[in-house]
Specification:
The protein has 619 residues and is mainly alpha-helical. The protein has helices at 18-31, 37-48, 51-55, 57-63, 70-95, 99-106, 111-141, 178-184, 196-205, 220-237, 241-251, 254-267, 272-280, 290-304, 310-315, 324-357, 361-364, 369-381, 386-419, 421-424, 428-443, 451-461, 466-495, 502-526, 540-567, 574-581, 605-610, and strands spanning 5-7, 12-16, 169-171, 174-176, 532-533, 536-537, 598-602. Helix 7 (111-141) packs across helix 10 (220-237) and helix 16 packs across helix 18. The protein is globular, with a radius of gyration of 26 Å.
Length: 619
């Protein structure tokens, strides 16, 4: 390597390594990198800011004490969200490897963690694009003189189409207005009616069947929309981060303009203040409820995207000296701020809908697809120039989901390409097309007449416990097996110095963050209810399939433990073989990508490559 060496105060050598720089240069040409730092930042923002920021967070905030919910939310962000984001960003940037190969080289015994991430992202990418197909369908249907869910005068509407208005009642010949009914506690049986938007969703868009065992034919309109979304996804990622990194300049920024426009429009509507008051009304007693803290932690976990593999993948295309610590502060704050900001526009519009239809706001405040495909469109239908606002809303929704879809699909592609580089890397564009085509075919059953039941089944179980399990294993392996001291050395190698608050992150990685994940997992199991959709109860065999989906990704971890034990271990005894797999392999080297770049290595070098476990008190 040359003779340009000098020891530092901690026993490291500063070594000039043109050979590594040359290898890094080849890797950069073959694997690709972000064209600029801003490409990476916008891609991470777009990946983290997804549909959940719009259809889940506002509802959780309303349900869990309004503005009070922000206290546990930001506490969980500080102790779980940011540490996990920094951990994955730094880990991926240091090695420039996808999820599978990074664990296969840093801790070969736990290669299955990378496979688990890839499986989770693959499963979710298949059904996530169904939401994109629904969104594009609504967008096209908005291109008309009036939105088709504005009235009950369509061929798909039933006799039960209309609004249930609370206007009082007549008892014993005496009329009581609604305020008297509520104050006197008079029971009034109201007819159950379906709103026009609800019947448009169920009876026209989905043409929903009676159950999951009655799939019916493929809805060809939705299938075409699904095909369109996959074509768009492929067109944006066909060149890897070189192409997707440019697309996000529009897809990650334009939604903020639309959110602002919708907020301004919503704030000018009658009843908007009532909706915002419901959103922010503070109930301090909620802080004593464990479910509120669980909801806050879960939302942070699902929203920021740790353990999915996307953050590892995106950061693996960074420059070696990128300030990943700065990114791990800025991006989570943008993500959480977006969630809170979006809630104002959503609840202002729901307040308007409540005022216009007479339906109490607590009955219209829902989450998930019901919010964006039923409740919100119903509110838009009562606005002047409804088609314009509907098209704007669904276009924004499509862009928000598109960036998240980029991350999940790129995770699957990069993980497999890095795993089989000689075969797949020269053919990455063709392989990307194959993945998108396969995922399109696998998504077709979800656009049948019974597809919504399959969608909810996958949505319910695909990341129920697997995501938490992978996140906990990731923390434990990096902090305790790879070694938190070694990891901090890696960060120092990239940044030049450790962040001032590195002791805080060290404690979080080793103790606090895994504890929070364990709390979420236990509470989710205690609070578990079987899958359902509306009033439909799934058969038992569906729940069995659901749990199989929930654990299939986690099974990757023990399966690859066995595989690596018999194929890559060294030693004469089982214990020796396992110990050899707990150390970084000889291929584990810093991804130095600049010729003449100075990098630190342990002295002697073999101690770094063989991976001695370092105690916490050595920091």
């Amino acid at each position: 390597m040359g003779d340009n060496k000098r020891p530092d105060a901690k026993g490291y050598e500063v070594v000039s390594v043109p050979a590594c720089a040359e290898a890094g240069g080849k890797q950069e040409e073959a694997r690709g990198n972000w064209s600029s730092q801003f490409d990476y930042t916008l891609s991470c923002v777009g990946y983290a800011v997804g549909l959940g920021n719009i259809w889940r967070f506002p509802y959780l905030c309303y349900r869990n004490g309004g503005g009070v919910f922000l206290i546990p939310y930001f506490i969980m962000l500080l102790f779980a969200g940011m540490p996990l984001f920094f951990l994955e960003s730094a880990f991926g940037q240091f090695a420039n490897e996808g999820p599978i190969t990074i664990f296969g080289k840093a801790a070969p015994f736990f290669t299955g963690i990378g496979w688990a991430m890839t499986v989770i992202s693959g499963i979710v990418a298949i059904y996530y694009n169904i939401v994109m197909a629904w969104t594009s369908f609504y967008f096209f249907k908005s291109m008309s003189v009036s939105v088709p869910w504005q009235s009950c005068n369509n061929w798909w509407n039933s006799a039960q189409c209309g609004y249930t208005k609370l206007n009082g009642t007549v008892s014993n010949g005496t009329y009581y207005n609604q305020s008297m009914v509520e104050s006197l506690g008079i029971k009034v049986v109201q007819p159950t009616l379906n709103t026009p938007a609800e019947e448009f969703w169920n009876d026209f868009v989905l043409q929903i069947s009676k159950g999951i065992d009655d799939p019916g034919p493929v809805r060809w309109q939705l299938a075409l929309c699904l095909l369109l979304t996959w074509v768009i996804v492929f067109a944006c990622i066909c060149k890897g981060v070189k192409s997707s990194g440019k697309v996000v300049y529009f897809t990650a920024t334009f939604p903020y303009a639309v959110l602002t426009i919708l907020l301004i429009r919503g704030a000018t509507l009658e009843g908007a203040s009532k909706g915002i008051n419901y959103y922010l009304s503070a109930d301090w007693k909620k802080l004593g409820n464990a479910k509120v803290w669980n909801d806050a932690a879960s939302q942070i976990f699902y929203s920021l995207g740790p353990a999915w593999g996307g953050l590892l993948t995106f950061s693996s295309y960074n420059r070696f000296d990128n300030n990943c610590f700065r990114d791990s502060v800025i991006i989570p704050l943008i993500n959480c701020g977006t969630s809170f900001y979006a809630g104002f526009g959503v609840f202002a519009t729901l307040g308007f809908m409540s005022h216009k239809t007479g339906i109490p706001i607590e009955n219209v405040a829902v989450q998930g697809p019901g919010l964006v495909f039923v409740t919100y469109p119903e509110a838009i239908a009562h606005m002047p120039a409804a088609p314009f606002w509907a098209a704007l809303f669904f276009f924004m929704l499509f862009l928000v989901g598109l960036d998240t879809q980029f991350g999940m699909v790129e995770t699957v592609i990069s993980a497999l390409v890095d795993c089989f580089p000689r075969v797949l890397r020269p053919r990455k564009t063709v392989f990307s097309l194959g993945v998108c085509a396969l995922f399109f075919v696998l998504g077709l059953p979800i656009v049948t007449e019974g597809g919504i039941y399959l969608f909810e089944l996958i949505n319910w179980y695909s990341a129920l416990i697997s995501l938490m399990g992978v996140g906990m294993m990731e923390c434990i392996v990096i902090a305790w097996v790879y070694g938190v001291r070694r990891f901090l050395d890696d960060i120092k190698l990239m940044l030049g110095e450790l962040p001032v608050i590195w002791p805080f992150y060290m404690v979080c990685w080793c103790f606090v963050t895994p504890g929070i994940i364990l709390f979420i997992t236990i509470f989710s199991m205690v609070d578990y209810v079987p899958v359902y959709y509306g009033d439909y109860t799934y058969p038992v065999w569906c729940e069995v399939i659901g749990w199989m989906m929930a654990v299939v990704s986690l099974l990757m971890i023990p399966v690859f433990m066995v595989i690596t034990f018999f194929t890559k271990s060294e030693g004469d005894t089982p214990i020796a073989k396992i110990k050899s797999l707990l150390k970084p392999s000889a291929e584990w080297v810093p991804a130095n990508q600049k010729e003449g770049h100075v990098m630190y290595q342990m002295k002697p070098i073999e101690s770094h490559l063989n991976g001695e476990l370092r105690p916490l008190d050595a920091v």
